[in-house]
């Protein structure tokens, strides 16, 4: 079994957040450049929302690619709006 870890990054600077050493839910994580920060719980929540958006965009793109190859399937042109996130995950899709 393998376990992958995703680093929490500043949404503006794409640098890893720094935190207090212990893992309390009230620990503060912040960008070392701009000092934008929040509690561990809120950072994880926002990184999760960003991850959901990225996954939804990739699923939408896969469906579009499939639909382009078929005469019988049509998809609306409505795309998933891009959100603005203070914190994002460092992951490869």
Quick overview of this protein structure:
The mean pLDDT is 85. The protein is 31% helix and 17% strand. The chain has one helix at 40-68; strands at residues 7-10, 18-19, 28-30, 37-39, 87-90.
Topology:
Elements: E1 7-10, E2 18-19, E3 28-30, E4 37-39, H1 40-68, E5 87-90
Antiparallel strand pairs: 1-5, 2-3, 3-4
Low-confidence spans: pLDDT under 50, at least 5 residues? none
Biggest β-sheet, characterized? Answer: 3 strands, antiparallel
The counted number of beta strands is 5
Major β-sheet strand ordering: 2-3-4
Structural class: alpha+beta
How much beta, percentage-wise?
Answer: 15-25%
Global Rg: 17 Å
Describe the structure.
- The chain is of the alpha+beta class.
- 31% of the residues lie in helices and 17% in strands.
- It has one helix and five strands; from the N terminus they run E-E-E-E-H-E.
- The strands form two sheets. The chain has a three-stranded antiparallel sheet. Strands 1-5 form a two-stranded antiparallel ribbon.
- The two termini are 20 Å apart.
């Amino acid at each position: 079994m393998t376990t992958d870890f995703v680093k929490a990054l500043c949404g503006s600077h794409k640098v890893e957040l720094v935190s207090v050493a212990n893992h309390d839910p009230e620990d503060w994580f912040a960008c070392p450049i701009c000092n934008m920060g929040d509690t561990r719980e809120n950072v994880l929540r926002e990184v999760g929302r960003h991850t959901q958006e990225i996954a939804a965009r990739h699923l939408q793109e896969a469906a579009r690619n499939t639909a382009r190859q078929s005469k019988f399937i049509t998809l609306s042109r409505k795309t998933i709006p891009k959100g603005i996130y203070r914190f994002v995950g460092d992951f490869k899709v």
